[in-house]
Automatic annotation (TrEMBL), chain A:
<protein>
    <recommendedName>
        <fullName>CheW-like domain-containing protein</fullName>
    </recommendedName>
</protein>
Automatic annotation (TrEMBL), chain B:
<dbReference type="InterPro" id="IPR036061">
    <property type="entry name" value="CheW-like_dom_sf"/>
</dbReference>
<feature type="domain" description="CheW-like">
    <location>
        <begin position="8"/>
        <end position="153"/>
    </location>
</feature>
<dbReference type="Pfam" id="PF01584">
    <property type="entry name" value="CheW"/>
</dbReference>
<dbReference type="GO" id="GO:0007165">
    <property type="term" value="P:signal transduction"/>
</dbReference>
<dbReference type="GO" id="GO:0006935">
    <property type="term" value="P:chemotaxis"/>
</dbReference>
<protein>
    <recommendedName>
        <fullName>CheW-like domain-containing protein</fullName>
    </recommendedName>
</protein>
<dbReference type="InterPro" id="IPR002545">
    <property type="entry name" value="CheW-lke_dom"/>
</dbReference>
Length: 146, 153
C-alpha cells in the first residue's frame, strides 16, 4: 500500500505538497522569468521558450489563484502544447527513504477533466502531505487560462 | 420448547450536531480522537480533510454538509472520527471517516423491539435510508448506496 518513490516537495504559500519525480519538470529561479507586471490575470510570470513562453501561475496554499504571495521560483511541468508552471517559495527533492507514500482517493467529483488532483498522501509525524497527480495538475493549470 | 433468541444487531449511535445516525458496528473499524485534518484543496465541501490512521490516509467527511447544511460547526474537544471499513466494491485501503460530535454509543437493536420511524420524522435527504426509534430517540440509518455514489461518482 505504500510507495517509496522520489518526490519533489513544493511549498506554495506556506502549504506543502509532493510532486512525483516521474513527472517531468523544470525549476526556474524568479530572476530568470519575465514577471507579469499587471495585477490582473492569473499568471505570475512567464519563462521564455523557443516556441513562445510558458506561464507560471500564482496560487495560494489552497491551490486557488492568488497572486498576492511572495515567491522565489517556479516549477514547470512538461505538458502539451507547452509546459505550465506554478510560482512557489521552495522546491526540494526529498531522499527516497524519507518518503513513504500511502495511496489516497479524494472523495466527491474530481475537479479536473483528468481526475482528482491528488493520488497519494505522505504520512508524517507532523500531519499529512498530499501528493499531486501530475496529469490532473496540468489539466487544472491549463484550465486557469490567462 | 425454548424460545428462539430475538434477532439483534450490535450497532453504534453516531451523534451528529442535530441528530444521530445508527450504524452497524461491523461496518466500523475504530473510533478515534479527531486529529488535525489536512484540507484537500478543490475537494467536495463536505470533505473536511484527510487524516493519518495507522498506515493509511483516511478522508473524513461531515455528514451534515453532505446532506446540504450550509455550515458546519468547528469540531470540539469532544469530537471523534468514526473510521469505517471500505464500502463494497472499493479498494481494501479506502477506509473513510465520519465526524461525530461526541463519543458514539453502543446500541443493541432488537428486531422485535425496534420501532420504525415515519419519513416525516427523519431529515429529508437521499443519504438517510430510514430510521428507528430506540429508547424514545429517533436514529437515522444512512443510505450506504447513496453514500457510495456521492463518495466515488
Amino acid at each position: 500500500m505504500t510507495d517509496s518513490g522520489t518526490y519533489l516537495r513544493l511549498e506554495i504559500a506556506g502549504a506543502n505538497y509532493l510532486l512525483p519525480s516521474t513527472a517531468g519538470f523544470t525549476i526556474e529561479q524568479r530572476e530568470n522569468l519575465a514577471l507579469n507586471d499587471s495585477a490582473a490575470g492569473n499568471i505570475a510570470a512567464w519563462r521564455p521558450a523557443k516556441n513562445g513562453r510558458w506561464p507560471a501561475y500564482g496560487l495560494g496554499g489552497d491551490l486557488r489563484v492568488d497572486r498576492r504571495g511572495a515567491w522565489q521560483r517556479a516549477v514547470f511541468l512538461d505538458a502539451a502544447p507547452h509546459a505550465v508552471g506554478i510560482a512557489l517559495n521552495e522546491a526540494q527533492l526529498l531522499p527516497r527513504l524519507e518518503t513513504s507514500v500511502a495511496r489516497f482517493t479524494p472523495m466527491g467529483p474530481p475537479p479536473t477533466r483528468a481526475g482528482h488532483l491528488f493520488s497519494g498522501a505522505w504520512l508524517t509525524d507532523k500531519g499529512v502531505v498530499l501528493v499531486l497527480e501530475p496529469k490532473a495538475l496540468i489539466a487544472y493549470l491549463q484550465g486557469l487560462g490567462e | 420448547m425454548p424460545q428462539p433468541a430475538p434477532d439483534r444487531i450490535h450497532a453504534l449511535e453516531l451523534p451528529l450536531t442535530s441528530f444521530s445516525l445508527l450504524i452497524p458496528s461491523a461496518s466500523t473499524a475504530e473510533v478515534v480522537n479527531l486529529p488535525h485534518l489536512t484540507a484537500v484543496p478543490l475537494g467536495a465541501p463536505w470533505l473536511l480533510g484527510v487524516m493519518g490512521w495507522r498506515t493509511l490516509a483516511v478522508p473524513v467527511i461531515s455528514y451534515e454538509l453532505l446532506m446540504g447544511a450550509r455550515t458546519h460547526p468547528a469540531p470540539s474537544a469532544a469530537s471523534k472520527a468514526v473510521i469505517f471499513f471500505p464500502l463494497p466494491g472499493r479498494k481494501e485501503w479506502e477506509f473513510f471517516g465520519i465526524l461525530a460530535a461526541a463519543e458514539p454509543r453502543p446500541q443493541t437493536v432488537v428486531a422485535s423491539l425496534a420501532i420504525p420511524v415515519d419519513a416525516g420524522e427523519l431529515p429529508d435527504s437521499p443519504y438517510v435510508a430510514s430510521g428507528l426509534r430506540i429508547e424514545g430517540k429517533v436514529l437515522a440509518i444512512p443510505d450506504m448506496a447513496a453514500l457510495r455514489k456521492a463518495f466515488y461518482p
